[in-house]
């Protein structure tokens, strides 16, 4: 293979890698945005703890709270993906409270 063709092949591979990373980034953002919209309604505006749900922003699984409510952080939710069990008050939990 000539040097020119090798260079073209390298550029094509680089473009493929960039496109793959961009597609993965868009999917991650779409999952996060879905969780943010869901959690805005069902994590904080739920009419009772019994109906409260939290959507994991990484896998979009929906969880009921653990049954535990603390004085400082409110409803506690189970662990999912790499998010540990606990409250869901910050933006990384795909909730609006962390945007302040
Ligand atoms: Zn998850």
Number of helices: 1
Number of domains: 1
Q: Tell me the overall shape.
A: rod-shaped
The small molecules bound here are: zinc ion
Q: State the strand order across the main sheet.
A: 1-2
Radius of gyration using CA atoms only: 20 Å
The total beta strand count reads: 4
The unreliable regions are: none
Order of SSEs: HEEEE
Determine the fraction of residues in helical runs and give it as a percent range.
40-55%
- Strand % is 5-15%
Polypeptide structure, described:
By secondary structure, the protein is of the alpha+beta class. Strands 1-2 form a two-stranded antiparallel ribbon. The chain has 1 helix and 4 strands. The protein has one domain. The site of zinc ion has 6 residues, from loops. Zinc ion binds next to loops.
Concise structural overview:
By secondary structure, the protein is of the alpha+beta class. The chain has one helix spanning 3-42; strands at residues 53-55, 62-64, 69-70, 74-75.
Defining traits:
100 residues; alpha+beta; two-stranded antiparallel sheet; 1 helix; 4 strands; 10% strand; binds zinc ion
Protein topology:
Elements: H1 3-42, E1 53-55, E2 62-64, E3 69-70, E4 74-75
């Amino acid at each position: 293979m000539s040097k020119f063709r090798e260079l073209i092949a390298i550029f094509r591979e680089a473009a493929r890698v960039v496109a793959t990373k961009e597609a993965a980034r868009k999917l991650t953002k779409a999952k996060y945005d879905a969780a943010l919209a869901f959690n805005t309604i069902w994590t904080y505006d739920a009419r009772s703890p019994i109906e409260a749900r939290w959507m994991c922003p990484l896998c979009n699984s929906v969880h009921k709270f653990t049954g535990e409510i603390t004085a400082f952080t409110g409803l506690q939710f189970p662990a999912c993906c790499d998010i540990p069990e606990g409250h869901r008050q910050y933006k990384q939990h795909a909730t609006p409270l962390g945007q302040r």
